[in-house]
Amino acid sequence: MQDEQNPTDTEVKQRRIRSFVVRGGRMTDGQQKAYDANWEVYGLDVANGRIAYEDVFGRTSDVVLEVGFGMGASLVEMAKNAPEKDFIGIEVHPPGVAKLMMLAAEAGVNNIRVYCHDAIEVMADCLPQGQASTFQLFFPDPWHKKKHNKRRIVQPLFAQQVANVLKVGGAFHMATDWEAYAEHMLEVMEEQKNYENAAGKNQYHPRPEWRPLTKFEQRGERLGHGVWDLIYTKITD
After folding, report:
1. Interacting residues of 38 by C-beta distance below 8 A, sequence separation 6+
2. Is 135 annotated as a binding residue?
3. Of 9, 74, 96, 130, which has the fewest CB atoms closer than 10 Å, so is most exposed?
């Protein structure tokens, strides 16, 4: 067993990778009140370490993970529309976390929980390994300038980190409105030996009906912007 005080080089490298760039995380008084009022019900603390989904939700179910849910409206809608599933959102932006919890409380949704922390550390230190049914990454920062492409979250190492928390048969679902990033995602994922493209090799996937259209996406559609979904199934550990 690896000594926690002396992590391997790979573990050190993984924990240095960040899944976000913080841009103005300060909350308004109203957001802070919403955060404080709802955290006890919906919040998960990284300091508590590895969780068990059955303990968190009080049942055995399909668990959906989403990284970078923004202001949370679409994730709450998915949880509301699929009461038989349980959802965990991971977002580093405190106002977004506050908004998601407020929306969940207003809708009476109780099958959702949230981490306000970097996803890479949550995935490594807090989530059960090999158990989630779905991992969602919708509209991540495209880092569209070529010199910044290396900052894109979808890289071979991240694909493996996602595979670590997915069960065999689980799905890694991505969506982006940047065609160049879609091509990058496709290139990265087609090289992964433990995934299979659900739409067929080198193919994008039609938007599933259960993925809600965000206001941002609806506006993009009116302007003629494309959106690309990719779904990969984990086929082996």
Report:
1. 98, 101, 102, 104, 105
2. no
3. 9
91 is in an annotated binding site: yes
C-alpha to C-alpha distance for 92 and 5, rounded to whole angstroms: 26
Residue 231 amino acid letter = I
- What string of DSSP letters covers 135-157? EEEES-----SGGGGGG-S-SHH
CATH 3.40.50.150 correct for 52-234 = yes
Structure tokens at 175: 């969506």
Closest CA to 100 of 166, 42, 27, 52: 42
Instruction: Please state, in angstroms and rounded to a whole number, the distance separating the CA atoms of residues 163 and 161.
Output: 5
Cβ(176)–Cβ(185) under 8 Å? yes
Is 146 annotated as ligand-binding? no
Task: For the full predicted model, state whether its pTM sits above 0.90.
Answer: no
Question: Catalytic positions, please?
Answer: 141
Can you tell me whether residue 12 is helix, strand or coil? helix
Q: What is the pLDDT of residues 172-225, one digit of tens each?
A: 999 998 999 999 999 999 999 999 999 999 999 999 999 998 777 777 778 778
Dist. CA 160–CA 176, nearest whole Å? 20
Q: How far apart are CA 82 and CA 79, in angstroms?
A: 5
Instruction: Taking the CA atoms of 143, 67, 155 and 121 in sequence, report the sign of the dihedral they define.
Output: positive
d(CA 195, CA 193): 6
The answer to whether the annotation marks 217 as part of a ligand binding site is: yes
236 is in an annotated binding site: no
DSSP classification of residue 205: B
Measure the CA–CA gap between 103 and 120, rounded to whole angstroms: 25
Residue with tokens 């957001």: 31
